[in-house]
Design brief:
- The protein is α+β, with helices and mostly antiparallel strands.
- It has one domain (3-93).
- The protein has helices at 3-21, 27-40, 86-93, and strands at residues 45-55, 58-70, 74-76.
- β2 and β3 form a beta hairpin.
- The longest helix has 19 residues, at 3-21.
- The two termini are 25 Å apart.
């Protein structure tokens, strides 16, 4: 599957979760439900995948984690906030 097709399936799953749960829950609840829905779509998905920071030639295990990694191609960062701030945008870019 190519990235755009995977992304469409992930968005479909996210809309299902949001429709079922609505707003106001913790990110961990949305993440768990989205993980379940993506599995139901038949896609490979991993939760809380460690991601090292590469600085120059050094690989540092700094504690970064990907919320979800789908098909080893799409990173999903789950957010449960009223509005995005510059911090949220910086996290997603990183």
């Amino acid at each position: 599957m190519e990235e755009n097709s995977i992304a469409k399936e992930v968005l479909k799953a996210a809309f299902i979760v949001h429709t079922q749960l609505g707003p106001g829950l913790l990110e961990s609840a949305y993440e768990a439900c989205l993980f379940y829905e993506i599995i139901q779509l038949g896609l490979e998905v991993e939760r809380q995948v460690p991601m090292p920071l590469i600085y120059k030639e050094i690989k540092m295990e700094t504690g970064y984690r990907l919320d979800l990694l789908v098909q080893k191609k799409i990173i999903v960062e789950v957010k449960a906030v009223d509005a995005f701030t510059d911090v949220h945008i910086a996290q997603m870019i990183t």
